[in-house]
Amino acid sequence: MPRLRFHASSVEIEPDAERVSFATEDDSHTFSFQRDDSEPDEGPLWIERDEPAHGGRAALLRVVVEAGRFTADVDLARAPFFAPYDGVEVLHDDDEDTTRALVAALARIFRGHLSRVRVNVEGLPSHLPEPGAQQGPPRKKGLAMLAARSPGSAAWSGRAGKHADLTVVVENGGGPLTRGATVELGGPAMTSGLVDAVEVKSASGVVPFVRAGDVALAPLAALTLEACAEPQEGERAMRRPSVSLTVRVHAAKAGRGLLTVRVLREDGQNREGSGMVGRSIVIEPT
Hints:
Layout: E1 3-7, E2 10-14, E3 19-23, E4 30-35, E5 45-49, E6 51-58, E7 60-66, E8 69-74, E9 87-91, H1 96-109, E10 117-120, E11 146-149, E12 156-159, E13 163-172, E14 181-186, H2 188-191, E15 195-202, E16 205-208, E17 210-212, E18 215-220, E19 242-251, E20 255-265, E21 275-284
Parallel strand pairs: 1-9, 7-10, 12-21
Antiparallel strand pairs: 2-3, 3-4, 4-5, 5-6, 7-8, 8-9, 11-13, 13-19, 14-18, 14-20, 15-16, 15-19, 17-18, 20-21
């Protein structure tokens, strides 16, 4: 079988969430993997290509990092959803900072399986450093302060009578999130019956929405995020831990309306420190 090959204009490295993702400029091709210890017999990673339907728990058997190139072989015995490909080859801009950040993230993601990763970059050791060998910057204390965003800028879309999957990235700019979160789906697209809430998928599992008046709620009790690192001298932006969620809705009828996704701390009773992203969703007729 061939490898999935593409040039990534976007490389997102989230060491605290233990996640790496690559995407083309138009998101026609994507590849992401995240540490997932919830069901170790199914594989230590959650991997995904192009769309959530091509995602699940599996293992990457061999990973090679080179300047401007990332390759990986997928364990197809545990990842039939990755077919017709048996691996991935991603080209990206040869940036030293990106490569070093990628190597550091892989050291955390592949802990216990470090022999699967090889680094062929001048100036870097060929083997991965043990996680925890270097102490990170101090982290914020107090309450988590969440933010939500969705990749790209285009409206969300779907087709009447079918499900639509929306990607929402949750970031934490405050203290640690240790007691879960709640996803709230609302807006005119919900109240008008344009869409119905179905479920939220994360690395820790799938949780169905429950209708509560004009909104629908999904409690993610297992969701955690590390505290945000304190900004260091000379840094232009804080390093925010993040996690990617897939929000699934059912497109009930054709039309257009505003849909909002809010992520609240814990059981959702306190809206302080919550994050929200809202976009128009366009439902095409069948």
